[in-house]
Input
Amino acid sequence: GQQLNQSPQSMFIQEGEDVSMNCTSSSIFNTWLWYKQDPGEGPVLLIALYKAGELTSNGRLTAQFGITRKDSFLNISASIPSDVGIYFCAGQPQGAGNNRKLIWGLGTSLAVNP
Amino acid sequence: ETGVTQSPTHLIKTRGQQVTLRCSSQSGHNTVSWYQQALGQGPQFIFQYYREEENGRGNFPPRFSGLQFPNYSSELNVNALELDDSALYLCASSLNIGENIQYFGAGTRLSVL
Output
């Protein structure tokens, strides 16, 4: 199935470091969402972006909707051990109509060394 | 806690069998989507239900079918199970058909032997 290009695939960092990950697509997206998934759990929504250029924060997390509408990034500042998990980008392509299916990246696995 | 509950949490079946997975959406949400997540992959859209009718389908064969009930809970049925159907099946609910934000349950882990 269709998937977004998400990078990096995995990261291993020290507690307190900042983290950056991004997603790109070959087509235009109307919405970008960032989710975090812990083992044995479903994805949990972190940030939703609706307009090109939009920059939104949620605590230590900041995400931006790229101005080309084909990319998005997520930054985590001052990482802590509970940030460990898999981060997914997801988006709704332009022209999807009322079909609100989300296209997903493959995820970025984050490990934080205390 | 998203308010979306799925059952069972784990299931083991053999090839050729049929399975039914269940989902209760968050209170007030009338739209339910089902996803398949293979190990190490992102979720893949199976289909979406809005007010008891299918509203869009991903690239899955007809042996994947679903239902939505008047209380907006939903079922995913898979017939003639294959080994590749082993995955985490996620249900997500949205407030309305026009809402992009989806809230996920913890999933059902299906193993096909």
Remarks:
- The interface with chain A takes residues 2, 4, 31, 33, 40-45, 48, 55-56, 58-59, 90, 92, 94, 97-107 of chain B (CB under 8 Å).
- Chain B is about 0% helix and 50% strand.
